Amino acid sequence: MALTDLAAEYGTPLYIYDEATLRGRAALVRDAFARAYPGTHVVYAGKAFMNTAILQLLRSEGYGLDVVSGGELYAGLHAGFAPAEITFHGNNKGRAELDQALTAGIGRIVVDNAHEIALLSELTRERETPVTVLLRLNPSIDVHTHEKIATGVADSKFGFPIATGQAERAVAAVRAHPGLDLAGYHAHIGSQIFDSRSYVEAIDELLAFAAAMRDRHGVTIRELSPGGGYGIAYLPGEEPANVAAWAGTIASAVRERCAWWDLPLPALTVEPGRSIVGPAGVALYTIGAAKTIPGVRAYVSVDGGMADNIRPTLYGAQYHAEIANRCGSGASAPITIAGKYCESGDILIDHIELPPVEPGDLLAMPAAGAYCLAMASNYNLAPRPAAIMVNDGAARLIRARESFADLVRFDR
Length: 412
Ligand SMILES: *Cc1c(COP(=O)(O)O)cnc(C)c1O
Description:
By secondary structure, this protein is α/β, with parallel strands linked by helices. It folds into 2 domains: 141 residues, Lyase, Ornithine Decarboxylase, Chain A, domain 1, CATH 2.40.37.10; 236 residues, Alanine racemase (TIM Barrel), CATH 3.20.20.10. The protein has 12 helices and 18 strands. The strands form 2 sheets. Strands 1, 11, 12, 13, 14, 15, 16, 17 and 18 form a 9-stranded mixed beta sheet that branches. The longest helix has 21 residues. The chain is globular and about 70 Å long. Bound molecules: pyridoxal-5'-phosphate. Pyridoxal-5'-phosphate binds next to α10.
């Protein structure tokens, strides 16, 4: 479909999701793990982009859902996920959120800390059937990714550290509460990971811990989750994580370590987010003002920026872009793509070589499907952009553009 037509019909900034890519990514991860470790549960980490149409599509591809808040739980149920297909994560689930999850009857709660064990033991006191929980463990794996998206290092707000003995105390605490059924262990070591050995290390740590807990506390686990985090390509020439091969690596690690420790094979759950929706989304902007500061740099501004995609500002994330409305002519020159918001740090692309651009040109940024609209704000009272899904020559709106009236709706 011509991006010029889509821009004319839906306006910019616009987030465009390609259904075939989404289904293809979902099938690739699902089928790779089905081959490598039959029975693997594939679960979409909804926080990458929570949208009803996308959730329904992934559900139809056989996915379960990870949520990290009461809002995401609500949206997951609203999209039609059965409560049993939903897993609840987060490092500070509130009493009301846990109560909401228990009332809905969701499948699993991944317990993150001692406060949560106390809340759950209180909330489950009157229940007949125990709630299934996994413990989020911190295996202290130093993954090579941006420090703000590494979550399995020793200094992390997430999970029970194994090395300090806190994880073991959590096992004992969960076992002491009849309302909690400890099904297994979970680790999510970070995002945008490109080395499958990080998962092997995490699985080593989790299963060594599982063996120790069996020996010392008589706990045998039924489930294991090494999380998500598979890296995607953002720039030309980057290689995405080879999930098809990684599934084999992860499956062999689980089998080998279980054999080594004489543990029964657990059911495996994997939780991809970015690798499903990231490559399926393209952000489309309209170019406006330009300013060249001689000897410094040339700024070209677009009609979006940090309010719809804060990743460059937050993590120094890098993106590629192409002129979308014409074949650029003239020599490419380095420019900086700036957003329109009132922060000097609102830069979408610090350095890119493009042919000369003019006001009104369209700029397309690929790999914008994950953690962009998901983190969008109304800073400067920007109405959050529309999102559409395209398939087979047809487009449909999956999220309406916010209006100015929406921006003052909650003011009193
Ligand atoms: C965010 C998250 C994921 C998904 O991470 P991606 O990098 O988007 O694949 C999986 N599991 C948990 C617990 C998460 O918090």
